Structure formats: C-alpha cells, structure tokens
C-alpha cells in the first residue's frame, strides 16, 4: 500500500495549499485503488471509489488502461461492484475519450453477447477518437458480416456523434470582467515563471491574473449564477504574446463549464473579448476549447468635421467610448442573430465569432472533436462505399477568377486536403492542410503530452516530415522542477516519434537549443507548413504558425491543421542601409514606418507578412520573421532569391547532419529524410524545374508597405513606455524610438544578448565590439551586467572553431558548464559578462530574471510587464529591445549611448547588412 499511502500524504500536503487531490495518471496507484474497491471491508474503499470514478485521467494514460480493464470486468460480470452497475460502467467508458476505452468497447461490441454488444455499440457511436488499429478492427468485422460493425460504420458515416449533440443555445447571458487595460499578454493568464505547474491544472489555475482577481470573478459568479463571466482586454487586444493553452485552460477553469463530471479540472467554453479583438494565435486556442472570442470595438477613433481622426499631442488618435463594458455589465450574446446586446440595445455585429466552422467547435465542445469527426465520417463512408452526407459545414472555398496568388495562398493550395479538385483558393477560404514540420517546446510540452493522451494518440502521423521536442525554455536552471518534468517529457515524446533535445537513454549530449532555431534548420522546403508550440514559430522558410499545445498535439497525431487562408501584407524595401546600422534596426523601422503610414493602425495584425528580403540567408532573415509575432501578424513568409535559398538549405543540411552525427536520429531516420528533401529541393532550384517560391504578379494584398532604408538614420529601440499616462499604450511593441530620444543618459541596469532573435553574426558582432572597445579605451569595463545566451550549441561550436568564443571567454566572468549546470536561478548580477547555456534564458522569464525594477536592454522579443523583469516597490521594471551593438555599448557605459558614441564603437565592425533584392521578385 506504499503508493496509496504516498498519494494520501500528497493529498494532505495539497490541502494546505487549498488544492484537491491531484488527478491520477499512473497504473500502479490505480491498481491499488481497484484492489481496495474489490475488498469490501477495506477502510479506504469509499475514498478509492471516488478516486476511481471522479479523479482518474482518461485517454492513453496507464491509469486509463487500468480503469478501462476494470470497467470491462464489471460489464462482463467478472467483478461485481454495487456502486458501479454495468450501465454506469458504460457511461464511465463513454467519458474516457479513446485509447484503452475504445479497445474495450470494440471488444465488447464485436463479441458474442448480443445485449452487451448493443450497449457497447451505443457508446461507440458517440466516440470520435479512433485510430488505425481501432478502425481496422471495425473493417475486419464488417467484412465478416458483423451486423454491429455495420451499424457503427453507418452511424459514423452519418456523423451521428455530431448530429445528435445538443444544439447551441440561441443566446448566452454574460457578465463582464475587465482583466486589464491595454493589450493583455497571455503571461497575465498563465505566467511564464509558473510554467512548471501547467500540467497540474488546478495548481496552475491559482496563478491566473491575481488572487484578488480570482475572488472578484467568484463574486460575480455568485451574484450572477445564470450568466458566464466574460474576460475583457479593455482598450487592447486579448492574448498577445503567445497562444498559451494554459492561459485558456485557466480562463476556462475559472469561468467555463466542466467538460465531464468524471474528469476534474478540465473545463471548456470560456468567453474572452478585447476592444481590439483577440490575438490570432490565442483565438485558435479558444477554438480548441469550444470557446467564444469577441472583437468588441467599444472604443473608436474620434473624428473631426472632415471625418479625419482627431489626434493628441503625441500624434495618436483620440479614442471615444462607443459603449461601456465596465466590470459587472450584463450583456447578451445573441448567437442566432450574431449580435451583442445590452438589454434591448444592439451594440455590435459579432458574426465573425460565429462562422459555420466556429459554431461546430462550440457545439462539439472544441475543435478536436470536429477534426477527428470529419476523418471518421470520411473513413466510414469509404468502407461502406457511399458518399458521406453533408453534415459539417463545407470548407469555405473562395476563388477569384483571373486573380493571382500570394505566397501563402500558393502554399495552402499545395497542402490543402478535402477541397474541390483543381479549384484555386484565395484568402478567406477555410481549409484543412497537411503539416510538414511540428515543434513542441518544453514548458508547453507536458501539456501537449497530456493532449495526446486525452485524444488517445500513441504515435506520430506518417504525414509529418519531421518533429522536434526542445529543452530551451528550461535550459537556464536544472532545478528540481526541471529534473522532475523534463526527462519524463523527453521519454514520452521520443517514444511518440519526435527528435528530442534530450536522449532518454542518455547516449547523446543534451541540447538546449532554442526551438525556433532548430525548426528553422529542419524546415528544408519553403513550401512547407510548420506548426509549433510557441508564438515565435516564425520560420524564414515555409509558413509557420505559433500554436497552443493542443493544436501541436493535433498536428502530431493527424498530420493536419484546419484554418482560414489569411490575407497578406506585402513588405518591400527601397534605398540604402547605412553602414553603421544593424539589420535589427530595419526590423524595428518596418513596424514604425508601417504605423506612421497607416495613421497608427496596425495593418499587420492577423495577417501574413510577405517580406521580400531576397538576399539574406535563413539565419539572418529569421530576425525579421521572428519579430512578426510582435507585429501581431498571423505568420510571415520570406521571399528569397534562388541562390540565397540554396545557401540556406545547405546550411540547414549541415546542421541536420550534426544532429545525426550526435546520434539524435531515430529508428525511422527522420533527420536523414529531411536531408533527402533538402537535396531534392536544391536540385529543383538549380535545374530551373521549380525556382524559389514567389507570389504571382497579379496577386492581391490587404496592404503594401515599402520600407525606406534611407530614413533609418540611427538605431531603433522598442520601448514598453511603462510610464505612459495612457495605460493602454504601455507594454505594446508599437512604441519604436530612435536612440537619440534617450539623450545618452538613460540608466541601464542589465543587458541581455540572446533568444531566438540573434544569430551567429550577433555573437561575432559582440566579440568584435569587445575588441574594438579595448583598442579604443585600453580595456573593457562593464558598468552594467551583460548576460549572453547563444541560441544554439552549433553556434558555440562554430564560434570556437573561428576564434570568437575565445574572445568572449577572455572578457567573461562566468561560463556555463554542462557537466555542472546551475541548480538555482541567479538572483544577483555583477558588472561583468556572463556566458550562459544556449537557450531562452531571460527572454522566457520562467527561471532567470533581472532584479526587480531594473531597466534592461535586450536583443530579445519580450517587453511585457513582469516577463524579463518585475516591478519593485519603488520603480517599474522595463525591458527595452534593441540591436546587439546597442546592448553591448549600453552595458559598457551603464546607460544608453549617444549616436556619436555608438558610431565610434561600431566603426569597422561587420554588422548584419541588408540590401533590397536587385531584381523584382515576382514571377
């Protein structure tokens, strides 16, 4: 009884934290609980029954296997439990969502006991998580004239698992709760520093917003028991920064509905809203849970008598409140009319939130059930030799005769499945697409593993060319939390079929490379679709979508994703880049010039940015495509010249070969297969058979932006503007300022060079600057700490081979040691250079952080409140984002430099250069 006693001890410890018993996922514990249920005199029998019925995780967990087996015994009469009748056993099986439960149900349905077979068939007709082994059993029985198998297949062909679900209510009453003013980062809903607890849903739920907010939500629920609480980003966008399934799970836990009475802490149907809508990647996550995301537009631009926006002293449009959504406001979401009401007053059209596809997600309780349901219906109809009846909303197919295709439209047309043959699809079409590359990162990976278990998936889809599980988000500190979670995650993913950063067998050296960099390398075809468990899944080859852990799981299990084809914004360049500027400044200037051109309106939001870089290889171009997450774009595509693409593919091949040489390939030789794909693509380009992807000359764009390089006269800094009098303007990535704004006297407390935004060239710039400064001043002295975290080990190896790492070592006061990794997060920094382990480090904010109240200047992507640096009692922490040379010089000086100091420091240094393509990149 050791396992059970340990569980009881854990329960008592959780009580102190105000938590319920942790849901059971292990076979050993549940086997002991079942034995106690069978023992009628056991003192723990009643508690064991409750744990078995109400507290066991379903899907493919080992505990689910034991539960399904015991329920089968009860149904067959081999075990008698008065509290669990055979009818109740069938009900419990119906809530177990695939895996062992489907195996048991099929065995009973195709068995010899007619009465039991019919009951099992009733349950099976409601299930959608069937895989090849399950469907093969049905097909074999059908071929042997099994009538039950025919009945089940006919039910699947009619999609009764969907049609017999209750219809969506005509209206939903909601009570509003303002979660924050301005853009709401998913860090508010699920803080990065609590990433270790995400798979423990109840515990993680305690970190949403604040304890005070949680009490306020509970008070609203008590006051309005018949209404749903709607979380709102007032004067901003909800869910920026990342998809963060854990954020949606937390919202659902506090405001949604319980998915099953027999599965604890899994809720669905959250309702979220924003004045400026929902971030695209976060909205996908809301769809996963059958939730609703509303674009409120409750603040509008004030117009003058000519209809032009009235602007304040800063040049920003002045907003007026169209209607109030103050906390406690009761509103009605009229789904039938697709309108939002306050009493009888119509406020706004919300039809975009209730497309036919989204209505299906809401009805089914989430998007997974629809994806699996469509596949199941297609399979059953094919076996029966019939055309599947039109049950689901047909794929939305938009085609404009005579109109060319943007790059993303071309990629979606190539990868689409289930669409009308030979029909050319344009933006706005809603399609299923095959996914080529999938990435899972370590702080969401545990949730992805849970999602795979819940949808009963056991092996990666053969459609996927390659998939990778990273260790970068927990690279900085190998603490007890990481030691408990990461090896378990790596084993699960390795067994599932992914290439993993850590070898569960311990043969190859652990890699903590930043996931986006690895995915950028293993994407070896610019026609690929990539899905990754992070908002910065933005490759410079192919089109990549950051996604929640569930969508990643779905892509791994099925090799597919469903989404609309987004509109594109075309970005081209003119002029000349000044010799003392870095390409990072071009990236920031793109955002600044776009906002200026469109009067403060972000035309990138929710769109594909089709950037015509052409002459930058994939490493350097990634700096642009990576930042498009902060531009609030849906994704980005880099249009490259033939020779540049070949160069990028050769770099990718060499790095994949390094992974193979380390022993990272698996039994199916995924990595070798990627090299073969790259070789084929290179041959196609060289022969002229299939040149590098370009849009059509007559493609249609939502907008076009031409970036004038001549206007970029000094380094650019993205500023969180933490003291802006307008709270909604703080912590956005839209405040881009020139270096001179700071007057050369803004104190800097810490610098950070690292994250996915830097490449090998940045590390070489750092080494060159240190040598330059020593030549100019006689020595290098840091007046602020400088933390450096290279993105990948291969960059470190290449720097060592080329002599640059030796330069960094010379000036550093700390260098990482993989043989003795840090066991605790650093809390204090000295004024010196730290060479940290490859990985995310400060950018992630879940392990390492700057000191509270610091002003940090960093190359990273995150400036959200509390992410890199938290506020102190007396000062707001702020994270300024800039180029590598600005960060280096700021830590040497302990302040932001003047433009003259900057020019002197970078004199003769090979910065990341860029020139617009010489030829027009349209074919």
From TrEMBL:
Superkingdom per UniProt: Bacteria
Domain Aconitase/3-isopropylmalate dehydratase large subunit alpha/beta/alpha: 410-894
Domain annotation Aconitase B swivel: ranges: 178-405
InterPro entries: Acnase/IPM_dHydase_lsu_aba_1/3, Acoase/IPM_deHydtase_lsu_aba, Aconitase/3IPM_dehydase_swvl, Aconitase/IPM_isomerase, Aconitase_4Fe-4S_dom, Aconitase_B_HEAT-like_dom, Aconitase_B_HEAT-like_dom_sf, Aconitase_B_swivel
Gene3D superfamilies with a match to the protein in the record: Aconitase, Domain 2 (3.40.1060.10), Aconitase, domain 3 (3.30.499.10), Aconitase, domain 4 (3.20.19.10), Aconitate B, HEAT-like domain (1.25.40.310)
NCBIfam families given in the database record: PRK09238.1
Name of the featured protein: Bifunctional aconitate hydratase 2/2-methylisocitrate dehydratase
């Amino acid at each position: 009884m050791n396992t059970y006693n340990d569980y009881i001890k854990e329960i008592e410890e959780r009580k102190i934290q105000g938590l319920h018993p942790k849901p059971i996922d292990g076979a050993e514990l549940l086997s002991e609980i079942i034995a106690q249920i069978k023992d009628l005199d056991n003192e723990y029998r009643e508690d064991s029954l409750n744990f078995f019925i109400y507290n066991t995780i379903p899907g493919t967990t080992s505990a689910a296997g034991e539960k399904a087996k015991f329920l089968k015994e009860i149904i067959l009469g081999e075990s008698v439990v008065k509290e669990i009748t055979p009818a109740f056993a069938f009900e419990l099986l119906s809530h177990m969502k695939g895996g062992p439960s489907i195996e048991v149900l099929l065995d009973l349905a195709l068995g010899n006991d007619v009465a039991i077979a019919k009951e099992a068939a009733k349950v099976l007709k409601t299930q959608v998580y069937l895989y090849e082994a399950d469907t093969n059993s049905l097909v074999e029985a059908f071929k042997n004239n099994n009538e039950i198998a025919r009945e089940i297949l006919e039910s699947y062909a009619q999609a009764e698992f969907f049609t017999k679900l209750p219809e969506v209510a005509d209206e939903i009453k909601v009570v509003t709760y303002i979660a924050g003013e301005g853009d709401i980062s998913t860090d508010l809903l699920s803080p990065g520093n609590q990433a270790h607890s995400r798979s423990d849903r109840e515990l993680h739920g305690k970190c949403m917003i604040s304890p005070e907010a949680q009490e306020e939500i509970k008070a609203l629920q008590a006051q309005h028991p018949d209404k749903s609480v709607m979380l709102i980003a007032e004067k901003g966008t909800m869910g920026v920064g990342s998809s963060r399934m854990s954020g949606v799970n937390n919202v659902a836990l506090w405001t949604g509905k319980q998915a099953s009475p027999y599965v604890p802490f899994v809720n669905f149907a959250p309702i979220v809203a924003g004045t400026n809508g929902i971030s695209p990647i976060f909205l996908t996550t809301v769809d996963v849970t059958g939730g609703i995301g509303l674009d409120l537009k409750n603040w509008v631009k004030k117009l003058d008598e000519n209809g032009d926006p009235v602007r304040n002293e800063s040049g920003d449009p002045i907003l007026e409140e169209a209607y109030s959504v103050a906390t406690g406001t009761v509103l009605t979401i009229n789904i039938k009319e697709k309108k939002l009401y306050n009493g009888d007053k119509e406020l706004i059209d919300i039809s975009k939130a209730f497309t036919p596809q989204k209505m299906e997600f809401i009805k089914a309780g989430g998007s997974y059930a629809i994806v699996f349901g469509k596949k199941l219906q297609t399979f059953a109809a094919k076996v029966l030799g019939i055309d599947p009846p039109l049950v689901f909303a047909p794929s939305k197919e938009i085609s404009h005769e005579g109109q060319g295709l943007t790059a993303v439209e071309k990629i979606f047309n190539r990868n689409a499945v289930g669409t009308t043959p030979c029909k050319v699809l344009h933006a706005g079409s809603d399609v299923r697409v095959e996914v080529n590359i999938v990435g899972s990162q370590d702080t969401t990976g545990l949730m992805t593993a849970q999602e795979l278990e819940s949808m009963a998936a056991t092996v990666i889809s053969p459609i996927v060319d390659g998939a990778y599980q990273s260790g970068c988000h927990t690279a900085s500190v190998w603490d007890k939390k990481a030691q408990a979670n990461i090896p378990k995650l790596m084993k699960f993913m390795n067994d599932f079929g992914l290439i993993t950063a850590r070898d569960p067998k311990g043969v190859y050296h652990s890699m903590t490379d930043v996931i986006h960099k690895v995915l950028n390398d293993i994407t070896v075809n610019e026609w690929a679709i990539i899905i990754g468990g992070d908002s910065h899944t933005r490759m410079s080859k192919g089109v990549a979508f950051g996604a929640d852990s569930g969508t990643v799981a779905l892509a791994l299990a099925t090799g597919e994703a469903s989404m609309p084809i987004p509109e594109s914004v075309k970005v081209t360049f003119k002029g000349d880049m000044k010799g003392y500027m870095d390409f990072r400044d071009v990236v920031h200037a793109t955002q600044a010039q776009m906002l200026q051109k469109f009067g403060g309106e972000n035309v990138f939001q929710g769109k594909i940015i089709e950037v015509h870089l052409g002459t930058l290889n994939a490493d350097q171009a990634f700096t642009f495509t990576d930042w498009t997450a902060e531009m609030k774009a849906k994704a980005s595509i880099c249009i490259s010249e033939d020779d540049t693409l070949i160069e990028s593919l050769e770099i990718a091949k060499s790095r994949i070969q390094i992974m193979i040489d380390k022993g990272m390939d698996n039994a199916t030789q995924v990595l070798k297969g990627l090299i073969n794909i790259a070789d084929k693509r290179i041959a196609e380009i060289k022969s002229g058979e299939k040149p590098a992807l370009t849009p059509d000359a007559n493609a249609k764009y939502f907008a076009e932006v031409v970036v004038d390089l001549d206007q970029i006269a000094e380094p650019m800094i993205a500023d969180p503007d933490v003291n802006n009098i307008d709270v909604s303007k703080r912590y956005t990535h839209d405040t881009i300022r020139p270096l001179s704004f700071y007057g050369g006297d803004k104190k800097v407390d810490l610098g950070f060079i690292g994250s996915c935004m830097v490449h090998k060239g940045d590390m070489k710039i750092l080494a060159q600057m240190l040598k330059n400064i020593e030549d100019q001043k006689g020595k290098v002295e840091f007046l602020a700490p400088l933390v450096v975290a290279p993105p990948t080990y291969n960059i470190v190896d290449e720097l060592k081979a080329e002599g640059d790492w030796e330069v960094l070592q010379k000036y550093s006061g700390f260098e990482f040691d993989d043989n003795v990794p840090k066991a605790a997060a650093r809390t204090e920094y000295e004024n010196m250079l730290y060479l940290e382990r490859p990985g995310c480090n400060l950018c992630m904010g879940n392990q390492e952080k700057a000191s509270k109240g610091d002003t940090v200047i960093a190359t990273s992507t995150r400036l959200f409140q509390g992410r890199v640096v938290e506020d102190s009692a007396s000062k707001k922490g702020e994270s300024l984002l800039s180029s590598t040379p600005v960060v280096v010089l700021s830590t040497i000086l302990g302040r932001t430099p003047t433009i003259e100091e900057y020019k002197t420091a970078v004199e003769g240094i090979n910065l990341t250069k860029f020139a617009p393509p010489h030829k027009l990149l349209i074919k």
